[in-house]
């Protein structure tokens, strides 16, 4: 009697611990193995979002998926809250490449339910979070490399932690390492009322910078002001380049943090002062057009397209980055707005609202058992 389910290599991170499904296999090969007609294979099942083709939110399917036990160096985590990020949209649309089918999501917080053999430093019951790697957060439960998770302080709720971990670490590397913002700098933040934008504005203000933010509506302008923007530009009503030129008396800003892309890129370059930094870290409006070097030469501009993964390439850097984020949340330097929550099963609606700019602050998917 074979009691072990052999899992195909195409499922590198299988998910959770849930209801048990009993399958009977006749003489059918599974990954090259054959079972007798009487073989019964018990499989633990959980719910997850699966994507089989690129496209709109309709491609997000709510399905049963299989789970394995954690191996050496791995843990199993039951998710409490999952962060929704625009990178999830990029993968869903095929802007960023990954193999199909897949389970989306790169940020979640949950409780450790099992620990792989020989692993130390993690215990069942620990509250942990991960952000950026691996993909697969849109699931009730999943297997993770222990090296990818960070401890979540007990003073921070799973929902808040899931809302701030990826976005907060993004803000940390943008402000503290990519271009080190200091008192006296003037910064321009596009999408200032968004998940990352909100944190950038708060943190840059706390560092002593003058913060200029762009938003699309009056309501978002009010939030950006509350988050520390000294000047807010509603770009659908005003030319943000002209506004920045007026605010800075023609000098320009030290750095632009641009997550919008195509619609703002050229204007962002025009807003920079001599030797200014153009930090492009997203493209919600589409990829920018190619930039000739001559566009940078006139003012000696610096242009970078960084990612969190490059800046948190080691375990020590990951822990330091997450620790600084959580410390700033605890000290109320960062105020985390979870303005929208959705059941995980309703991820398609969450994606729709995010893409239609119907959300502000952070959006969190709640595991259906906790919703």
From TrEMBL:
<dbReference type="InterPro" id="IPR047618">
    <property type="entry name" value="QOR-like"/>
</dbReference>
<keyword id="KW-0560">Oxidoreductase</keyword>
<dbReference type="GO" id="GO:0035925">
    <property type="term" value="F:mRNA 3'-UTR AU-rich region binding"/>
</dbReference>
<dbReference type="InterPro" id="IPR011032">
    <property type="entry name" value="GroES-like_sf"/>
</dbReference>
<dbReference type="InterPro" id="IPR013154">
    <property type="entry name" value="ADH-like_N"/>
</dbReference>
<dbReference type="InterPro" id="IPR036291">
    <property type="entry name" value="NAD(P)-bd_dom_sf"/>
</dbReference>
<dbReference type="GO" id="GO:0005829">
    <property type="term" value="C:cytosol"/>
</dbReference>
<dbReference type="GO" id="GO:0070402">
    <property type="term" value="F:NADPH binding"/>
</dbReference>
<dbReference type="Pfam" id="PF00107">
    <property type="entry name" value="ADH_zinc_N"/>
</dbReference>
<dbReference type="Pfam" id="PF08240">
    <property type="entry name" value="ADH_N"/>
</dbReference>
<dbReference type="InterPro" id="IPR020843">
    <property type="entry name" value="ER"/>
</dbReference>
<dbReference type="InterPro" id="IPR013149">
    <property type="entry name" value="ADH-like_C"/>
</dbReference>
<feature type="domain" description="Enoyl reductase (ER)">
    <location>
        <begin position="55"/>
        <end position="365"/>
    </location>
</feature>
<keyword id="KW-0521">NADP</keyword>
<dbReference type="GO" id="GO:0003960">
    <property type="term" value="F:quinone reductase (NADPH) activity"/>
</dbReference>
<protein>
    <recommendedName>
        <fullName>Probable quinone oxidoreductase</fullName>
    </recommendedName>
</protein>
């Amino acid at each position: 009697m074979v009691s072990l389910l052999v899992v195909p290599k195409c499922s590198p991170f299988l998910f959770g611990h849930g209801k048990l499904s009993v399958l009977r296999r006749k003489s059918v090969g599974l990954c090259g193995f054959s079972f007798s007609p009487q073989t019964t294979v018990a499989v633990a099942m959980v719910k997850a979002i699966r994507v089989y083709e690129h496209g709109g939110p309709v491609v997000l399917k709510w399905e049963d998926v299989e789970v394995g036990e954690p191996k050496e160096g791995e843990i199993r985590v039951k998710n409490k809250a999952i962060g929704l990020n625009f990178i999830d949209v990029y993968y869903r649309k095929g802007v960023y490449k990954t193999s199909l089918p897949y389970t989306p999501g790169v940020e979640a917080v949950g409780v450790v339910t099992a620990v792989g053999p020989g692993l130390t430093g993690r215990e069942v019951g620990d509250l942990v979070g991960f952000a950026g790697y691996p993909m697969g957060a849109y699931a009730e439960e999943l297997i993770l490399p222990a090296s990818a998770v960070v401890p979540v302080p007990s003073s921070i709720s799973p929902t808040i932690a899931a809302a701030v971990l990826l976005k907060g670490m993004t803000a940390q590397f943008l402000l503290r390492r990519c271009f080190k913002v200091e008192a006296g700098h003037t910064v321009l933040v596009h999408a200032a009322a968004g998940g990352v934008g909100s944190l950038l504005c708060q943190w840059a203000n706390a560092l002593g910078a003058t913060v200029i933010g762009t938003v699309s509506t009056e309501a978002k302008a009010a939030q950006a002001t509350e988050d520390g923007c000294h000047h807010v530009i509603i770009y659908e009503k005003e030319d943000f380049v002209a506004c920045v030129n007026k605010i800075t008396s023609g000098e320009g800003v030290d750095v632009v943090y641009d997550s919008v892309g195509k619609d703002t890129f050229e204007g962002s370059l025009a807003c920079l002062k001599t030797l200014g930094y153009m930090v492009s870290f997203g493209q919600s409006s589409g990829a920018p057009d190619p930039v000739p070097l001559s566009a940078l030469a006139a003012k000696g501009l610096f242009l970078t397209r960084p990612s969190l993964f490059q800046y948190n390439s080691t375990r020590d850097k990951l822990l330091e980055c997450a620790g600084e984020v959580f410390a700033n949340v605890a000290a109320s330097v960062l105020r985390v707005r979870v303005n929208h929550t959705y059941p995980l099963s309703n991820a398609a609606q969450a994606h729709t609202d995010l893409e239609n700019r119907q959300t502000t602050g952070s959006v969190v998917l709640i595991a259906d058992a906790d919703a």
